[in-house]
Amino acid sequence: MLDLKFIRENPEIVRKSVENKNEKGNVDEILSLDKDRRSLLQEVEELKARRNQVSKEIPKLKKAGENADDLLAEMKTVSDDIKRLDEEVRQVNDKLRLHLIRIPNLPHESVPVGKSADDNVETKVWYPDDFNAEKDFTPMDHLQLGKKLNILDFERGAKISGTGFPVYVGKGATLERALINYMINFHIEKHGYTEIMPPLLVNRDSMFGTGQIPKLEEDMYFMEKDDLFAIPTAEVPITNMHREEILSEEQLPVKYAGYSPCFRREAGSHGKESKGFLRVHQFNKVEMVKMVRPDSSYEELELLLNDALDILHELKIPYRVLLLCTGDLSFAAAKCYDIETWSPAEKKWLEASSCSNFEDFQARRANIRYRRAEDKKTEFVHTLNGSGLATSRLMVSILENYQTPEGKVIVPKPLQKYTGFEIIG
RNA sequence: GGAGGGGUGGCAGAGUGGUUGAAUGCGGCGGUCUUGAAAACCGUUGUGGGUUAUGCUCACCGGGGGUUCGAAUCCCUCCCCCUCCGCCA
What is the pTM of this model? Predict the structure, then answer.
């Protein structure tokens, strides 16, 4: 959510950003509702001031034994007017808020303007030293490998739950678990994050706080009986840990890392890039969340990105980094890097992580503040998060990059102490 | 699920329907004292909104609604927390 005052004072900037982000926010309606609201407020507050003043006089008159009937009669009508105007204010406020929460965050000035993913800017490409782009055999894709080695079972997953719910079997399950443990430990030990194991079902306020609601409500699994949502990412519960709180400056930067399964309905996105792990309804992810001082958030974004990349360096998985253009940037983000890992079988890059700075957009929605040490004033924190990383896409890259000509898969060195075996097949 | 108790400022904790935005304590800030610090003492200290703005003003005591000229205080409703009972991996 943007600051209403900012929109009032910079409507052109906001209009431009809504357009660049391919969003639909109605800035003019907001300006007009804001104007209505302020003029109504002035009117009703004048009446309330009068009411408050008289309310102090009445007990005095009564105490003095004087008659207050005239004042009481006047107040009766004043009170009715206030009630009517308050209702009008409430309606205008509701409408205003409805529009306000649909205005996307402003892209940072360093974000390239663009219409679609085609306009994203590649900022880095990395290959391990011994990497051979051209293998001397035709690599199997992760589906073929999964079936041959009996480590992934998409058919049975479909039987149990539906398409997009993979079953990990045997060494596949162990490898997945190893990957999660490895990544979590890495962030805790090497990067100083505090581990969080969050609830997987969250309430409406939490979903609103991080911005999934209302825009993406259709993409969320929803438990109607209890008004709870299955989390699409651990970002939601972890960021909301400090909703409605005031942190002290010494607590910053807050650095949390947590593993969770992620649930996404992916409504309306079937067909395209949807086979196997490329699009699933449930997947595992280690998420990093930071809450930082506003003046440090862009530094922290670079650090966050590097924290995620370090994993790929150790696992020796080729990757590239994209700086998302305005048109591909998510609703709440001000700046975002995507990390994509290489799939030799698909011969393309697969998104394995997004690292974003939300500035104070989420913090304003969720009311997460900190108290400045220097003047004791409160201010919204900046929130950031990044996958570190999503296992499903990473698993594709590991299986395909580490396969041998015989169709076996070597377990990457750093994962071996977690799996207890060195090769699958 | 049943029965009871409770949600008040950064924290703890008072609060007969009428100068209560809210006692008191802690904490914070400023000062006196001191070589310095502590202690003691004095003062000060919430957030958000509107405004033709050294000011004036409105709202906020878990959320929402109601009664009233006037609500932290009374009523309804929802949420959350605690205790006991029941159920349970």
Answer: 0.91
Please say whether the beta carbons of A194 and A236 come within 8 A: no
CA A33 → C1' B23, Å? 42
pLDDT range class, residue A132, cuts 50, 70, 90: confident
Q: In whole angstroms, what is the distance from residue A13 CA to residue A259 CA?
A: 38
What's the burial of A238, exposed, middle or buried (CB within 10 Å: 0-12/13-18/19+)?
buried
Our measurement of CA A54 to C1' B24, in angstroms, reads 30
Question: Exposure pattern of A107-146 as b/e (b: 16+ CB <10 Å)?
Answer: bbeebbebeeeeebeeeeebeeeeeeeeeeeebbbbbbbb
pLDDT at A273 over 80: no
Highest-confidence segment of A52-61, A166-175, A340-349: A166-175
For strand B, is any atom closer than 7 Å to the CB of A161? no
CA A212 from chain centre, in angstroms, equals 7
Task: Say yes or no to pLDDT of A148 above 90.
Answer: yes
Opening angle at CA A260, ends A184 and A107, nearest 5? 90
Say how far A243 CA is from B62 C1', in Å.
15
The token duo for A285 is: 């992810």
Q: How far apart are CA A367 and CA A207, in angstroms?
A: 13
**Mean pLDDT value across chain A:** 90
